[in-house]
Amino acid sequence: MAYFRPTTRRRERHELKTKILGNATLGAVLGIFLGLMGVEVIAGCGEVSYYPDGSWSTNQCVWLHHITDVPHRSGEWEMQDVSPVHNYHPKPQGDTTI
């Protein structure tokens, strides 16, 4: 059996505790960050919502509006009269004879 001095063992224990604490801290910070970003994605932060009256607005953010200076935008869009195409069957291209 090899003899290790008490200072060597103490240093190894200290390094192990430091690694565990560092990894736990990094994991907690990363988990909180991803959780906050997940809430923003679910809330639809910055995505445009169109309404039947011809208006649109960007969805507000939950936390990011405190950090960034991106304003909440809204406006109106021009509705176009689009008639539906019924019984649409694409015409075959090329030689269709067998």
Give a brief description.
The chain is about 45% helix and about 10% strand. By secondary structure, it is mainly alpha-helical. Strands 1-2-3 form a three-stranded antiparallel β-sheet, with no helix packed on it.
Structural notes for this entry:
43% of the residues lie in helices and 10% in strands. It has 98 residues and is mainly α. It has a domain at 9-75. It has a 3-stranded antiparallel sheet with strand order 1-2-3, with no helix packed on it. A hairpin with a 4-residue loop joins strand 1 (48-50) and strand 2 (55-58). The model has no long low-confidence stretch (mean pLDDT 80).
SSE order and pairing:
Elements: H1 6-43, E1 48-50, E2 55-58, H2 64-67, E3 74-76
Antiparallel strand pairs: 1-2, 2-3
List the main descriptive attributes of the protein structure presented here.
elongated, 3-stranded antiparallel β-sheet, 98 residues, mainly alpha, 2 helices
The order of strands across the largest sheet is: 1-2-3
**Largest β-sheet summary:** 3 strands, antiparallel
Helical stretch tally: 2
Radius of gyration, in angstroms, nearest whole number: 30 Å
- The N- and C-terminal alpha carbons lie at a distance of 87 Å
| Helix/strand order, N-terminal first | HEEHE
- Which strand-content bin applies to the residues? 5-15%
Tell me the total number of β-strands: 3
Low-confidence stretches: none
Q: What is the helical fraction, as a range of percent?
A: 40-55%
Taken from the alpha-carbon principal axes, the silhouette is: elongated
Average per-residue pLDDT, rounded, comes to 80
Summing up helix and strand content along with how strands pair, one would put the structural category as mainly alpha
